[in-house]
Amino acid sequence: MAPPPDWNGGSLPLKPSAAQMQAIFKPMTDPREPARAPFHLIAKPTGAICNIKCEYCFYLDKEALYDHPKRSDFRMRDEVLERYVSEYIGAQPGGAEVNFSWQGGEPTLLGVEFFRKAVAYQRRYAAAGQVITNSLQTNGILLDDEWCVFLREAEFLVGISIDGAEALHDRYRLDLHGRGTFARVIAGLEALQRNRVEYNVLTVVQRDNGDHGAAIYRFLRDKGARFIQLIPIVEPEPEGVSSRTVGGEQWGRFLNAVWDEWLAHDVGTVFVGHFDMMLGLTLGAGSTACVHAKTCGRALAIEHNGDVYSCDHFVTPEHRVGNVTEIHLDVIVDGPAQTKFGADKYDTLPQYCLDCEYLSSCYGGCPAHRVARTPAGEPNLNHLCAGYKLFYAHTQPTLTAMAKALRAGQLARDYANFL
């Protein structure tokens, strides 16, 4: 598909000269080598600034990290954007697909022109034949036909957040005036569908919607969603977790309810991220999500000013590992601080996890969720442990049968032949 004529930003050449490079970028003295392995950066080009105020959002308080007098100061400047794009592409090992993931806050607050410029920089710095992709996570409020035409033509994959039908969605996903956002989000979803934009739906699972797995799944499916991501909310507090946090076993029951509905009606036509990952693990592939990989550290976050953090769940001063305008990304990603952060995921597991029959399916889950204690009193147990065990026990026989079907050259939905 040909790009729109203004993708190249008018005056932006497709490839910079050496003189332009020197004029744009201040010198960096550290060595420049591609990273040892592919890595992923989640970009926060508006920082924590958003046009709604979800009560459970873990990122809104990150605004306090930066002493900006105005909300409008939380905007990735052109020179930071260009450095980020150039560094991110250049630091990946040869042959790696480069995915730009735009999140927030709310990235659509920057307007379409910001992303046209980002795509122009990507085209400028990509090597011949290099695959560049983009994904955008949004609350959907600002999506209209102009946005969606751009997103389709630029081949963005859009994640839109919907927590279920109106009453469930509006429990926590409120605007800055305390009003529900459901109707506006559905209008954004319909704009994506009307303009044939590739999208998936992201549902945050918390205590209030955590008992409605099957109903939420049916609602999303009937709204046209064919790719669904499920994200559990775990909010640590001094005495445990918040009242919004999904219960451990509740999370497992939620996943099982979605699984049962999906298995009965939609295998091969609807794709649930957690199920796809588990099938891959059953087939012997590595985890497609850092949450259930043995180590982490290859999924970092970059803030609006170029600061890089170990993970978007660890955007804190002690987890700031550099700034893209000062240090090459490959040096940051493969540096000792980030390497230790990634290794700690496995190295700090309690013995309870190391002895668990589901260790290779879980690896303790996300370190940000390890706020519970084992029956023996060991720290660092995942709050969701009991739920994951419920899910693994419930699905393992069928996943094993699906893997056998695929190895035999059949489809996953033919699993019954292999039970």
Question: Could you please describe the fold and organization of this structure?
Answer:
The chain has 419 residues and is an alpha/beta fold. It has a domain at 35-197 and 289-347: TIM Barrel (Alpha-Beta Barrel), CATH 3.20.20. 35% of the residues lie in helices and 12% in strands. It contains 14 helices and 12 strands. The protein has helices at 18-24, 78-91, 112-125, 145-153, 166-169, 182-194, 213-222, 248-265, 273-282, 329-333, 336-347, 351-354, 359-362, 385-407; strands at residues 40-43, 98-102, 132-138, 156-161, 199-205, 227-232, 236-237, 240-241, 271-272, 299-302, 307-309, 320-323. The strands form 2 sheets. The chain has a 10-stranded mixed β-sheet. Strands 7-8 form a two-stranded antiparallel sheet. Helix 2 crosses helix 3 (112-125) and helix 7 (213-222) packs across helix 8 (248-265). It starts with 17 loop residues before the first helix and ends in a 12-residue tail after the last helix.
* pLDDT averaged over residues: 92
Strand content is 5-15%
| Cα separation of the termini | 44 Å
The H/E string reads HEHEHEHEHHEHEEEHEHEEEHHHHH
- In CATH, the topology of the domain at 35-197 and 289-347 is named TIM Barrel
Rounded Rg = 22 Å
**Biggest β-sheet, characterized?**
10 strands, mixed
Enumerate the strands of the largest sheet in spatial order, edge to edge or round the barrel: 9-6-5-4-3-2-1-10-11-12
CATH class of the domain at 35-197 and 289-347: Alpha Beta
Number of strands: 12
Coarse structural class:
alpha/beta
Q: What is the annotated CATH architecture of the domain at 35-197 and 289-347?
A: Alpha-Beta Barrel
Low-confidence stretches: 1-27
